[in-house]
Amino acid sequence: MLRRQFLGSTILLATAARATSGLANPSSSSALMTIAQQVVQSKSSPAIQIAVMKAGVLTESIALGSANLESLTAASPRSVFRIGSLTKQITGALLLKLQTEKKLSLTDPAAKYLPFLSRHAACTIKELAQHTAGIHEDQDPPLLSGEITQYRLAQALAEQKQFFDFPPGSAWLYSNANYILLGAIIESVTKQTLGQAVEKYLTGKLALAATGYDDLGQVLIGRAAGYSQTASEKEPFRNAAWIDVAQSGAAGAMRSTAAELVTLAQALLFGTLLTSTERAEFLEPSRLRNGKPASSNRFSEQDRAMGDAQYGLGIHLDHTSTRDKSLIVHHTGFIAGFSAYMATHMGSQTTVACLCNVDVNPKLPFRDIRRAVFRSVLLPPNP
Description:
12 helices; 13 strands
C-alpha cells in the first residue's frame, strides 16, 4: 500500500472533509457530541476522540465508542491513537529548535548531513520540510528488516530509480519521502533517536506522557487498535493492515491523544515552546526559488485543488476559508487503521483535534467538526 495513502496526503484531506455527515452549521459542545455520536452509531469509526482548547484552557474533551473491539475496551480521553501526518508539524518545530542551537540551518543542503545524497541535485532542509524539494515518493517503498533507523530508511529512499519528480525549488508536491530524509538529518545531528529528540526539545517540556514515537514492542496502557471498514453490516470493521510504524519515521510515526495534541499545538503557536523568531519561520508560507508562492506551481493535478492555500513547516496555512482572511493552521494524518485532524484558528486562539481508529473513509467527520468549532469565522460552504 502506498506510503502517501497511509500518512495523509492533501487530496485525502479534501475527500474526507467534503463527504461527511452533512450537519448544518453545528455549534458548541452539543454539536460536537452529536457529531461524535453519529460517527459511532453510523459505524464510520469504532471510536472517536475530540478535544478543544481555547487560549490554553481545555474546553471540550469527548471520547465515544470502542478503542478495542476484541477486548471490548471503551474509548476514553486517555486512549492513545496513532496520528499519522500530524507528526510533520512536530518535526518542523523540532527542526527550528535544532536551528536555534546551531546544530543545523534550514538553508543547509540536505547532503551536508546525508552524504549519500551528494550525487543528486542539491535541495535544502527547508525545501524538504515545505514540500518543494521535488523528492519522488515510490509507489512501493522498500520495507526494511532488522533494526530500523531513519538513516537506513533515507539510504534506501536514495536508491530509488527516480529520485526527483522536478528540480528542487521549482514546484510544490506533498511527499512523505521529504520527511523520511528529515528524520535521518535529525538523528544525525542530535545523535539521538527521533523519539528521544522530540521528548527533549518538545513533549518533555509539557509533560505529555502519551505523545511520542510509537513502538509496537512497547506495552502501552490505553493503546487503541486500528481498523478498516468492510461492506458487511454484521461485521463492519476488520483489523487494519499491519505495517511497522517505524517505517513512517518523521513523516507519520507518532501517537497521542486529542487533549495532548491541542495542548502541544497551543504551546507551539501561542506559548513559549517556540520563540517568536521560531514561530514566524514555522508559519512562513513556502516559496519557490524564483520567489513566487509555492502554490503558484503545484506539480500534482490533485494538489491544485488546494488553490491559494499555503504550507509552512509541516502545516497547512489557510487564509481562504475565513470571513476576515484570518489564518487557520491545520493538517490531517492517515496511517493504517487511524485517521486524525487538527486545526487552529489563530485569531481566537482555538484549537480542535479529532482522532479516529479507522482508515480514511468518506464518512470521517472532520469538516463538520471544523465548522462546529470555527462557525463564527468561516465563510459559508459552497452550494
